[in-house]
């Protein structure tokens, strides 16, 4: 097994059954008799698509899970986007009691480095949710690939320790240096390992929290300084007890 295979990472995303409610666009008029406990017309997850640390020249896909909320049958009439670099399509539909849909949202390989902004526009036949707008945000890196784009570290109950690894590699075949990797949070350390003859780097992020009373969910950022035109890569880090 190669060194790269040993440190290979996969970021797992889980879909909970409690999907947030959709607000129809345009806003729906509500009568004075509408109860707060009334069923929402449609539920979807996530509320926003994020292409964080995508790579120039490489495509990337995220998914939207959408479900019928009330007793009105839900049919999606169209799925559109407002950007040439973002596309969306239904890849799965069905359901015995409530109709559900899975929509793939794709960021194209020709997206220029820099911020990503747009929206997915879902047209339905539901009278209370005819149009659903889902924001798309993110950023595209130039000649750099980050895997995974975001880190999640789970602490062990026995000793309060946890770690995760992020791979930063060149997509143009050129060597580059990671000059610094830093997390501005107490108890977090980083270690950099160069691989593939300088065309890639592994960053080990280690957390130690011996005090059980302080083991609470935390969010921070990993700042990686590189000697490429990108200069700085920012990677979100979530620490879970």
Model description:
With 241 residues, this protein is mainly beta. The protein folds into two domains: 103 residues, Sandwich (Immunoglobulin-like), CATH 2.60.40.10; 97 residues, Immunoglobulin-like, CATH 2.60.40. The chain has one helix and 16 strands. The strands form four sheets. Strands 1-3-6-5 form a four-stranded antiparallel β-sheet, with no helix packed on it. Strands 2-8-7-4 form a four-stranded mixed β-sheet, with no helix packed on it. A four-stranded antiparallel β-sheet has the order 9-11-14-13, with no helix packed on it. The longest helix has 4 residues. The protein is flat.
Identify the notable features of this structure and list them briefly.
241 residues; mainly beta; Immunoglobulin-like; four-stranded mixed β-sheet; flat
What CATH calls the topology of the largest domain is Immunoglobulin-like
Instruction: Quickly give the structural class.
Output: mainly beta
- List low-pLDDT spans: 1-38
Helical content class = under 10%
Order of helices and strands: HEEEEEEEEEEEEEEEE
Spatially, the strands of the biggest sheet line up as 1-3-6-5
Output the CATH homologous superfamily of the largest domain: Immunoglobulins
| CATH architectural grouping of the largest domain | Sandwich
Radius of gyration: 21 Å
Number of helices: 1
Number of strands: 16
Q: Which CATH class of the largest domain is shown? A: Mainly Beta
How much beta, percentage-wise? over 45%
Main β sheet profile: 4 strands, antiparallel
Q: Give the overall form.
A: flat
Distance between the termini: 31 Å
Overall pLDDT metric? 84
How many domains make up the 3D coordinates?
2
């Amino acid at each position: 097994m190669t060194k790269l295979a040993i440190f290979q990472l996969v970021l797992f995303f889980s879909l909970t059954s409690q999907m947030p409610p959709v607000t129809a666009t345009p806003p729906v008029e509500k009568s004075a008799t509408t109860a707060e406990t009334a069923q929402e017309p449609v539920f979807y997850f996530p509320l926003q698509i994020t292409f964080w640390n995508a790579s120039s020249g490489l495509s990337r896909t995220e998914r939207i899970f959408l479900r019928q909320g009330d007793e009105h049958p839900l049919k999606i009439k169209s799925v559109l986007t407002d950007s040439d670099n973002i596309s969306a399509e239904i890849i799965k539909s069905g359901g015995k009691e409530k109709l559900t849909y899975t929509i793939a949202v794709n960021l194209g390989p020709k997206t220029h480095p820099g911020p990503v902004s747009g929206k997915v526009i879902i047209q339905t036949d539901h009278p209370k949710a005819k149009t659903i707008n889902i924001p798309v945000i993110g950023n595209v890196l130039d000649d750099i690939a980050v895997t995974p784009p975001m880190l999640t570290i789970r602490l062990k109950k026995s000793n309060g320790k946890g770690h995760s690894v992020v791979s930063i590699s060149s997509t143009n075949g050129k060597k580059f240096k990671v000059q610094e990797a830093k997390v501005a949070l107490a108890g977090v350390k980083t270690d950099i390992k160069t691989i593939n003859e300088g065309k890639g780097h592994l960053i080990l992020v280690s957390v130690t929290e011996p005090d059980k009373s302080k083991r609470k969910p935390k969010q921070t950022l990993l700042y990686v300084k590189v000697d490429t035109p990108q200069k700085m890569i920012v990677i979100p880090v979530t620490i879970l007890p």
